[in-house]
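Q: Structure tokens for this one, please.
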Amino acid sequence: KRHLGERFVCDGYFAGENLIGFTTRIFNGTAMEGYTHGLIYEQNKAYELYQNFMLDDIRAALAAQCTRIHTGRTSAALKSSLGAEAHPMKCYLRCSSGLTNHLVKPLFYFIKPAEEYGRHPFEETEAGS
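A: Here is the predicted structure, written as tokens:
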């Protein structure tokens, strides 16, 4: 918060006076990053915390006139039901030892993220609706 100032926001979610969840956002130009979420999982179902985190991220991005929201890879089904689309990411790693870099590089060709289920709620059907 000290370095990002108003570009960093943390919202708490309460049941009465008990904190049951929080979410943080970072605003970076016209993009917003849904950065960190924390919740008491036993309360998630009753309050739909994670879904509310996502909806509040969308509201915050719209209010800030952001054109992109970055949300990470978790809960792809929920995010895609809200219109999110997955995009490829790149990973850059550099070790301080040249030998380690040489040995680690081939390993990354074998590391592939799991395929995520995604919905497409805004696609047109064959009937054109």
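A few notes: The CA atoms of residues 11 and 84 lie 22 Å apart. Strands lie at 8-15, 18-28, 31-39, 68-70.
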